[in-house]
Amino acid sequence: MSISKETLNKNLKSIFGFDSFRSDQEGIILNLLKGNDSMVIMPTGGGKSMCYQLPALISKGCAIVVSPLIALMKNQVDVLRGHYQNESIAHVLNSSLSKTQTNQVKEDIKSAKTKLLYVAPESLVKEEHIEFFRNVTISFYAIDEAHCISEWGHDFRPEYRNLKRIVDDIGEAPIIALTATADSLTQNDICKQLDLDQPDLYKASFNRSNLSLTVLPGKDKFKTISNFIHQRQGQCGIIYCLSRKNTEQLSLKLKKSGIKAAHYHAGLSTDKRSKTQEDFINDKIDIICATIAFGMGIDRSNV
Asked: Is the dihedral angle over the CA atoms 162, 173, 171, 188 positive or is it negative?
């Protein structure tokens, strides 16, 4: 699909209300619309989702967006539906849907009403879904949190290793792989596992002027943390702990001191993790005490 920069900027303004693109967004989108594979490395908050949302909305067919977290899929779908005032423009396909809901999603895709479909790799691998996708037009595949495909990545997900086989089964289309965290070893592995055809690499600076690192001395860690939070009423944040047990103990103490806190780690059930993440995104929780299992693409502007 060929499109001018002027037309692309008009779409950006009319759909999302932005006057201009950030960083490499424009070049990435134009490259994808030309049918080229891309590898995008941008820090959290750098605008990765725009790199596949806008081109999907203006392309023929439906884009398949592979994402590892149910709560984040739902969050992005809700935002897109809000822009369009249209429930069918974007859908989620995962294990949380009933048979009736799944059939409605597929009907909307067949009717060309849906432009983005967010799907977990575990759902995409199902033969009934693969068979369905073979008979619809796929504009491109977006692999979000692409470091999950690499054994060198910090959040390796074995299910991601099947993605190239699934893509081949469904049908060829451009692939855009996106992540906030990938060193050269992980980048190479992502490209190898997805068999990307000489992908254009876009790597944004990780220097964030709004971030700073501070070391606070003191023996009573809880008192330091509690005082820090109480001095910032109405603000939110993530406290990373070294063990699952620490996350549970700290969140419990914070709750007893009147702070809206919760814990998050890989030992919790999928439903519990999704609920906690959704509560945090929707401002129902101010503080998350977590291991590094938490943090992929959290979409809350005031963290």
From this structure: negative
